[in-house]
Amino acid sequence: MKNWTLRQRILASFAVVVAIMLLMVVISYTRLLRVEHSTQRVSEDAMPGTYALTTVRSAWTDSILLTQVLVGLSDGKPYDEARRQEFRVIHDALIERIALYERTVNDSRDKEILGRFKQQAAEYDALLGQVLQLYTTDRDGARRLLLERLEPMWEDGRKTLNQLISLNKEIADAAAADIVSEVATAKAIMLISLLLAIVAAAVCGLLLMRAITEPVRQVVKGLQVMGSGDFTTRLAMERNDEFAVIETGFNGMAEELKGLVSQAQRSAIQVTTSVTEIAATSKQQQATATETAATTTEIGATSREIAATSRDLVRTMTEVSSAAEQTSTLAGSGQLGLARMEETMHHVMGAAELVNAKLAILNERAGNINQVVTTIVKVADQTNLLSLNAAIEAEKAGEYGRGFAVVATEVRRLADQTAVATYDIEQMVREIQSAVSAGVMGMDKFSEEVRRGISEVGQVGEQLSQIIQQVQALAPRVQMVNEGMQAQATGAEQINQALVQLGEATGQTVESLRQASFAIDELNLVANGLRNGVSRFKV
């Protein structure tokens, strides 16, 4: 094993750990297959069987309950077609649910008990038919047959169903116990395998650490010697693994560093001389750039004053132009509004004339109503007079005319009410005529005011037209002045930007020269440090 490479040792360590893990996986997979088998027993046998038996017991109970309600508890309810249909539905449901459970049966005991229950169900169904048939002719006999034979037979079937349910519960409990046992065994196996894998990984890691730390210690020691400035040291580990390649590379690197340091010692002297010359030239360029920056700053201040004045003038002319445009726009809007107002007033005037015409018609209709009311008053007076005459004649007739007297009295009362109502209507009609007359006078005054307003609106429209023409004539002149000032402001701004850029460039040049001077000073220090540093190396 001493002649193994690090790669072989690492692969062997991984192989041991992987083998232990694979063994754990195989054993766990076997246990999981058993758990899966037990789970299938629960999901495909016990649970569907229990559900199907529950539905069978429900149908079994519905059958006896319906029979008891019809035969044992009812007082003369007929066994009609609706009842027959209910029993047929329950019978079909029972047969269907027994078949559903039979499809889930796999155990021999389960099949035996199910066969016994099917026989009991057939006997129960035949006896139920006899009870129902007897109920149509002899209800007392049907009740005795129900109590003496049908209910005990149903109880036997219920007990058989309970046996089936208990058997399915035993199967489910056994499968659940198997699942718990297999899971516990799988946990124990996985824990043992994990502990073995940890122990194997620890042992392999310790062996790898011993195979790596000693060569690494020798390499670190050689690097520390080289770090102290001695490039004459070399490694001699005498190994056949990957550290042999590291040994060859380390010794080659030491030779290369030895040559590099020798060359650096020679170059350090040349760098120191060149840096001194560059520093003198950089100081001269820095003085020239500082003078240029001061001149550019003065020119830039003057240019900014010109640009500021131009911007103020442009802003003022823009405000004047905007005010002129707003004035023109507002005047145009006012003119359109006046035109719409004039049109609206014409419509209002036409509507007022239409209202006058409608009021005249309303006045005429009120007069017609007044005539009708007068006629109704006359009819009421005549009716009242006739009812009075009828009452007098009824009094003359004595007992024979008493009923007619009551009718005459009622007619006279209605005639009085009609007279009062027609009087109220007459007063209302007169009030309407007065209101209509006042409305006609008001609409005449309103029409006159509208005509006067139309005339005034026309005069205002002509004045606004003159204002719009004058403002529109002023706008092109203001625009020309504004364009000229904008061109002047743009030129001044461009000059200012150019001077700013020139000032920035000059400032950057000064800063660059200053930084270059600092860099040269630092380079000089570095060159001196380099010369002093490389002089301590042993080559």
Automatic annotation (TrEMBL):
Lineage: Bacteria, Pseudomonadati, Pseudomonadota, Gammaproteobacteria, Pseudomonadales
TM annotation in the entry: 12-32, 188-208
Pfam families, per database record: 4HB_MCP_1, HAMP, MCPsignal
Domain HAMP: start-end pairs: 210-262
GO-annotated cellular components: plasma membrane
Species name: Pseudomonas nitroreducens
Name used for this protein in its record: Methyl-accepting chemotaxis protein
Domain of life: Bacteria
Domain Methyl-accepting transducer: 267-503
InterPro entries for the chain: Chemotax_Me-accpt_rcpt, HAMP_dom, HlyB_4HB_MCP, MCPsignal_dom
Subcellular location as annotated: Cell membrane
Family per record: Belongs to the methyl-accepting chemotaxis (MCP) protein family.
A GO MF term: transmembrane signaling receptor activity
